[in-house]
Design brief:
By secondary structure, the protein is mainly beta. It contains two helices and eleven strands; from the N terminus they run H-H-E-E-E-E-E-E-E-E-E-E-E.
Length: 181
């Protein structure tokens, strides 16, 4: 048996029994890792984020990952569950370092940009600039930076993924889902 797409272009010989032994290179090959990230975590599939029961009160959040992407799942003041990328749009710094908790807002440690519980940018430090110079253009980044609610346990998927109701084994009404904006 052979690895069909080794990153180096060399074929990987598999042990003769082929079912109980895997070549070590399969676990350490950078090309395999990159392909797995693309196909599994950025592909057209749904990913588990958290249990809805973990978000009982307004302001509750859970931090999780999908592949290498850090995601925040929150319950806002209207009791809606939101999911968005845990990064500031200014410099890409993590907004939240904790695993879970309760907050009113998220604030980037780098320059103090703030985000509400839906992932909307709500405040920018030195928005007017310093001494009238280098003012930030209000419309340049004030936008939702995360996921949009697609339907009504918490899952996320790329916008090109099949409808959750057509997903194999899916039980209608059993989960809350988001699609990438």
């Amino acid at each position: 048996m052979y690895d069909p797409e080794p990153s180096s272009g060399r074929r990987v010989a598999w042990p003769s029994n082929g079912i109980s032994e895997v070549p070590f290179r399969t676990y350490t090959d950078q090309g395999t890792y990159v392909r797995e990230q693309e196909r599994i975590f950025k592909g057209d599939t749904w990913h588990y984020l958290c249990l809805e029961a973990e978000l009982t009160a307004a302001g509750d959040f859970v931090s999780t990952t999908v592949g290498e992407v850090s995601i925040l799942v929150t319950r806002d003041a209207e009791r809606t569950i939101n999911a968005f990328v845990n990064r500031c749009i200014h410099r890409g710094n993590l907004l939240c370092m904790g695993r879970q908790g309760n907050v009113k807002k998220f604030s980037c440690m780098y320059h103090g940009w703030t985000y509400d519980l839906t992932g909307q940018l709500t405040g920018v430090a030195f928005e007017q600039g310093v001494q009238g110079k280098a003012a930030w253009r209000r419309n340049s980044a004030r936008r939702n930076t995360g996921f949009r609610n697609c339907a009504s346990k918490c899952w996320a998927a790329s916008s090109s993924a099949p409808s959750a109701t057509r997903w194999p084994g899916w039980k209608t009404g059993s989960a809350r889902m988001w699609c990438a904006a």
